[in-house]
Amino acid sequence: MAATTFVFLFNNYLVFWHGWPGVAPVLGGAAAFLGLLQLAGYVIPVAAIKVFALRNRERPFASDAALLYAVTAYVIAAAFWSTFFIGIVDGVISFLRVEGLLPAVFGKKLAQQLGVSSFRGVYVHLPLMLAAAVVAYYRRGLDFIWLALLVVVAEFQIVIARFIFSYEQAFMGDLVRFWYAALFLFASAHTLVAGGHVRVDVLYTHFTDRRKAMVNAWGSILLGVPLCWTILAVGMAGKASVINSPLLYFETSQSGYGLYVKYLMAGFLAVYAVSMMTQFLAYYLDAMAVLRGQSPSEPAHEPA
């Protein structure tokens, strides 16, 4: 299911960004070949995973759960470094632009292009995302927790600038909202696995380990995963959907000199859904390990 999720995201990109037909026209029409390729993108990974599972029947569930934990950690780390790099660089560009210094630094033509959201998204934000993906691969640790400090610093500089220097611009508030949204949406998956969400246990606390595992398994499959799929399905149903639309058109805030990152905040919902789904699937595998008499993976925490 995790592989299907990533294939779905890639197919969504092909359909709405490059005009591919999707899997619907597979049975005929000029677009049948491209549709067949997209359908194969779903079938081949599922078949490969099935073959792998059959050939490795003795492989413990905990190993697969640990793999999903690692995938989640990488997704969140890449998202964190992306928001960090983009927040800093876009903030500098917006400051230079609002103060009229952009032409002096980059030239008149490039300064005009940097005022276009699509140009800034493709030629500034995208390279920073690729750099973030590389940093996340080599960097180990819960880096997203630094977002809390970044939010405080961003808010503090607003207070200092406003009340001491009587200076305030739209991009300063945008930066706080950008990092604040990332903090809560990116941290949700880790908070889930660390058992940090607010919870009220009436029955669960008194369950045996086996019954807890059964509740975790059914809860992950019947409640957690469908919720995440609902976010992705509704948010990426069409060009006008709540996730696709801002990303397609590089949506920005109404303030002319704010950060050009509003479209990325819509993408945070996709990051949230994917990271939570992989965590729920890892929970399911850990629960199955307990039910089979195996040891759960590390980290192994009770769900929220």
Q: Any overview of this molecule?
A:
The chain is built from 11 helices and no strands. By secondary structure, the chain is an all-alpha fold. The protein has 2 domains: 1-59, no CATH class; 60-291, no CATH class. Helix 1 runs antiparallel to helix 2.
Kindly list the characteristics that best describe this protein:
2 domains, 304 residues, mainly alpha, single chain
Annotate the secondary structure layout:
Elements: H1 2-18, H2 32-55, H3 61-98, H4 102-106, H5 108-114, H6 117-138, H7 146-163, H8 170-193, H9 209-235, H10 244-249, H11 262-291
Helix pairs in contact: 1-2, 3-6, 3-8, 3-11, 7-8, 8-11, 9-11
Largest sheet: none
Rg on CA atoms, Å: 22 Å
Alpha-beta content class: mainly alpha
Number of strands: 0
Shape: globular
Head-to-tail CA distance between termini: 21 Å
Estimated helix fraction:
over 70%
- Portion of residues in beta strands equals under 5%
